[in-house]
Amino acid sequence: MSIKSRFQPLLEQRAKEHLYRRRPLATTAQDTAMQINGVQTINFSSNDYLGLANHPALKNVLQETGDLSVGSGAAHLVTGHHLEHHLLEDELADWLGFDRALLFSTGYMANLAVQPALMQKGDWIVSDKLNHASLLDGAQLSSAELKRYAHNDMDALEKRLKQAHKDNIQCLVVTDGVFSMDGDLANLPAIQKLAQKYDAWLLVDDAHGIGVMGSQGKGCFEYFGLQADENTILMGTLGKAFGTSGAFVAGSEVAIEALIQFARPYIYTTAMSPVNAKVTRAALKLVKDADVRRQQLMDNIAFFRKGAEAIGLNLMPSESAIQPILLGDSEVAIAWSDALKQSGCWVSAIRPPTVPKDTARLRITLSASHTHAQIQQLLEALAAIQAKSST
Ligand SMILES: *Cc1c(COP(=O)(O)O)cnc(C)c1O
Q1: For domain 56-288, which architecture applies?
Q2: Which of 30, 176, 237 should be mutated for ligand 1, with most atoms under 8 A from CB?
Q3: pTM strictly above 0.70
């Protein structure tokens, strides 16, 4: 059988179901106003929540990296671990109040790393059903058994943990901090309490919380006024609010050493560019000082929600920068997304298998850099489509 004979029908099937994916081509820098597929548009689909990806201060740092090599040349355990990586790890750990932090080239890899390294045969990984795909993949790479609980359902979580505790099974509770396709928050206070009550460990993926949530942007733990304990692992990404790329895992001294020894996606890969590490150190300084930007973001979220509610749009209960509009049908989601593009607003349609069947949606993300005028343009475009589709 040829590759073509296997995949041509699958590709055609995907297109017929309105699930075919295409890559929008950006020809200007990542920003709220940018050119995509040759058209000038307002970008409501990036995760650049604080507007740092194209920030002049970071681009200046990029000009000052003459003493660094472009590539790291090797894995961290070989010769790739540069002082810039080391300092960034220390600064992240200090900022977030963990013993140590460990850099990864991407958040996806960090999530492939943690569960297989820490969990063994006989253990349970107890995971929210709406967790990010990379957490699911990480669980499947592990020898532990995967138990999924209904989204944010604390009774279902407790039932699992109680059962495991009775049978002396070590559990790792796994959750997104901010759910990436819904924008709602994990019930971290309850989750932490349950984990502690039943001696379970806790892994929180705060890709959309770090830099944004909490008064100092330290993420969902700070937002809820919680303190991570020594059995907590925090994953954060650098490609979202930080505006650069890569990720980190923060935890206790022993947890991080365990990852360095046993996590294959850490060991068998080239270290991120030292240039990226240096620019990310500067990004961390901006994130720490970003109170005004965080306030602007919260203000933009409130402005959008108020306007969207006035039009009668089907908003989800999200207080984060992720503001989905649930449409259900994939074809409808694409039609809305296309109509918004015609009106100069770039909003991705999110379809299965990224989200559950019949829950296709527009995923609007807001940034501190959006102006009210830009958001107003989006609201007016949404109102026009809404009016048309209901007649
Ligand atoms: C984006 C994201 C990741 C992956 O991070 P990358 O650095 O983009 O690979 C992991 N988890 C969540 C919840 C995310 O939103």
Answers
A1: 3-Layer(aba) Sandwich (3.40)
A2: 237
A3: yes
